[in-house]
Amino acid sequence: MSSTFGKNVKISVSGQSHSPALGVIVDGLPAGFDIDMDALDAFMQRRAPGRNKFSTPRSEADKPEFLSGLVGTTTCGAPLMAIIRNTNTRSADYDNLRDVPRPAHADFTANEKYRGYQDVSGGGHFSGRITAAICIAGGIALQMLKKQGIEVFAHIKRIHGQNAQSPTDYTPDELDRLRQVSAKDFPVYDDEAGERMKSEITKASANGDSVGGVIECAVIGLPVGVGEPMFDGLESRISAAIFAVPAVKGIEFGSGFGCADLYGSEHNDPFYMDENGNIKTKTNNHGGILGGISSGMPLVFRTAIKPTPSIAKRQESVSLSRHENAPLEIKGRHDPCIVQRAVPVIEAVAALTVLDLLIDTPNYNL
Questions:
Q1: What fold, for 4-358?
Q2: How does pLDDT run across 217-233, given as a tens digit for each residue?
Q3: Contact of 24 with 133, CB cutoff 8 Å
C-alpha cells in the first residue's frame, strides 16, 4: 500500500481500524517548533468518534503518544513518530464482510488485490479511522502555518441537498467568525441551515440509511508564489492528498464546475491595486490559484463526501466464496453522516500540503 505522501515534509501512515494502534511518522518538520499540545488535543477531538448523536457510537480517546521527534514539546529535527491506541474495537461485527463485500466500499477491491489477506475489521487500512493519524501531523502543520500568518478553515457547505451560506470573500475580517465556526460541535457557517442538515441526518439514521455532503475549505493569508506549474501546482497537490481521505468523491476550486456556464468576461477576476500597494483581484473565481501558483487571494476549494457505505438497510451483494448473489446485512457501529467529522481532516490535509509547498517558497523561513 502507498501510505506516504509529501516532498519536503513526508508523512507515512500505518495501522488499521481495529489494530492495536494507528501510527504516523513525519519526516522533515523544521526543528525548534514548540507544539501547543492543548491546541492539538482540541483539534483531534473535533474528528474523534462518539462525541455526539450524529457520529458512530464507537468512543475513542484519540490521544497521541509521541515516541520520537520531540524534546519536551519541541521538534528536534529527528523524524516525529506518534501513535493512537485503539481501545474500543468489536472486530466480530465484520466477520461476514470477508465473504460478502459492502457496496460502495473497498471490501471487494481489497480482497481482489490482496488475495484475501486484507484486514476487513472496520475496513482495515481503508477505514476513515486512519485519518486520526493524519490529523496528528495536520494539527501540527496548522500551528506552523498560523505562526506564519496563514490559517486554514473548513465548514459544512451542504448535506443531502441542504445548503449553507459561506463567507462572501473570506477577508481577514471574517477570521474571528471562522474560528468560532471551527469550534462548533457541528461546524456550519449558517446555523439555520445547520439545523436542516441535522434533520436530514436524523431522518436517514432512523431509516437505517446515511447521507453525504460537501465541505468548503479556505486557506487565508497565503502569500503569492506558493506552488509550481503542472504536477506540483496547488490544485494538483491538494487534490492528490484530498483523494486519500476515505469517502472523498470530488473536488473543485474557486467557481469550480460552475465556470463552465460563464462567459470569460464573467469568470475573469479583474486585477486592481489596493491601498497598501498589493495586487489583488476584485472577485475570486480562480479560488486563489493561477497556473498552479497562489495569487495572494484566499485559496478556496470544496470537497464532495459520499454517504457512509455501512448502513443498516438490507443491501444486495455477492458471496465471494459461493460465487452467487447474496443479501447483506451490516452489523457494527457506523456514522449516519461522516461529513462533520471529516471537516478537520480536510483542514489537516490542506495544511500539510501547503506547508510542504511553502518550504520551497522564497522568503519563508519556517
A1: Chorismate synthase, AroC fold (3.60.150)
A2: 999 999 999 999 889 99
A3: yes
